[in-house]
């Protein structure tokens, strides 16, 4: 098939490479403009652009898709379909009909659950037991189009946003290749989304990653997993920011939220609103990630009864 591909990060690049290897003709690649990245803030190309250059594909990087000239340029390519995956720009309605089969989106959730920008993190935060890929026919709404194909995978207790992202990368690539075969063979049966089941996966804010110790141990564990690797769950210890990268829910106990209950070679046991959590991997500001036991070396002043806090701990002691 003749395909126009629109995408930006690794999630999209994985799908693009699968389409190329499946023998499809990629007549145009759309991706976001180069952005400053890294410590030196040097201009960096997207994962999709780098892959497209490797295969010597035509690449456009418009800052907006609202140009009528661009729309006509795309229409003139007479592509069979446009594939969109984590592009980052809203497609004007006029673009949705420029290809024979319209625009298909590779979405990292089981629609209508988790429409929007951060479906992977929101699924973990909500304690969902499964997620997956939906291949959707795009319309003028936000992830509201007809569903063409779905594949499910479990969310395991050890999954972080990164590991789940990687699994969905591979699954999304498989699904779009399979979906195009079904599309050509006219074996796809479009299904309407149930609006009553729709949830909005809003973009993650850094402030959300600050741990609220009043939550249950399970909820805090989900937060740590959902914000790994970005932006990283964090709290404060003795006035300094501390990122928390790995935790485990442990046996029930009684303590005030944020109170350190035990310190040992396994890590740091902290009381939550309900239950307790073991901090296994942490990182002080400006430092490297360490096992909690390593982090404790040289911190002889830290002891049970101390607090992790995000507020005035005096208030907590007197509540």
TrEMBL record:
Its EC number is 2.1.2.9. It is an enzyme of class 2 (transferase). It catalyses: L-methionyl-tRNA(fMet) + (6R)-10-formyltetrahydrofolate = N-formyl-L-methionyl-tRNA(fMet) + (6S)-5,6,7,8-tetrahydrofolate + H(+). GO terms for cellular component: cytosol. GO terms for molecular function: methionyl-tRNA formyltransferase activity. (6S)-5,6,7,8-tetrahydrofolate binds at residues 109-112. Attaches a formyl group to the free amino group of methionyl-tRNA(fMet). The formyl group appears to play a dual role in the initiator identity of N-formylmethionyl-tRNA by promoting its recognition by IF2 and preventing the misappropriation of this tRNA by the elongation apparatus. This is Methionyl-tRNA formyltransferase.
């Amino acid at each position: 098939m003749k395909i126009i591909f629109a995408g930006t990060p690794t999630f999209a690049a994985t799908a693009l490479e699968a389409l190329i290897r499946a023998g499809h003709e990629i007549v145009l690649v759309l991706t976001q403009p180069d952005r400053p990245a890294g410590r030196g803030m040097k201009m960096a190309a997207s994962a999709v652009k780098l892959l497209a250059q490797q295969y010597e594909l035509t690449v456009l990087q418009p800052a907006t898709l609202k140009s009528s000239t661009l729309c006509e340029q795309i229409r003139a390519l007479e592509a069979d379909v446009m594939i969109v995956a984590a592009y980052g720009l809203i497609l004007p309605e006029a673009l949705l009909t420029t290809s024979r089969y319209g625009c298909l989106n590779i979405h990292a959730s089981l629609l209508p659950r988790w429409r929007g920008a951060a479906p992977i993190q929101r699924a973990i935060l909500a304690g969902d037991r499964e997620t997956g890929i939906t291949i959707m026919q795009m319309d003028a709404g936000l992830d509201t189009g007809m569903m063409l194909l779905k594949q499910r995978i479990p969310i395991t207790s050890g999954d972080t946003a990164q590991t789940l992202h990687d699994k969905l990368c591979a699954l999304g690539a498989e699904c779009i290749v399979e979906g195009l075969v079904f599309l050509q063979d006219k074996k796809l049966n479009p299904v309407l989304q149930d609006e009553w089941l729709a949830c909005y996966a809003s973009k993650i804010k850094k402030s959300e990653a600050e741990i609220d110790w009043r939550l249950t141990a399970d909820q805090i564990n989900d937060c740590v997993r959902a914000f790994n690797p970005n932006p990283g769950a964090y709290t404060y210890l003795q006035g300094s920011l501390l990122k928390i990268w790995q935790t485990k829910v442990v046996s029930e106990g009684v303590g005030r939220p944020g109170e350190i209950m035990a310190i040992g070679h396994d890590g740091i046991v902290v009381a939550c609103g309900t239950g307790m959590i073991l901090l296994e991997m942490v990182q002080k500001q400006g430092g490297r990630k360490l096992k909690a036991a390593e982090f404790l070396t040289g911190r002889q002043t830290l002891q049970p009864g101390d607090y992790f806090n995000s507020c005035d701990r005096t208030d907590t002691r007197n509540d």
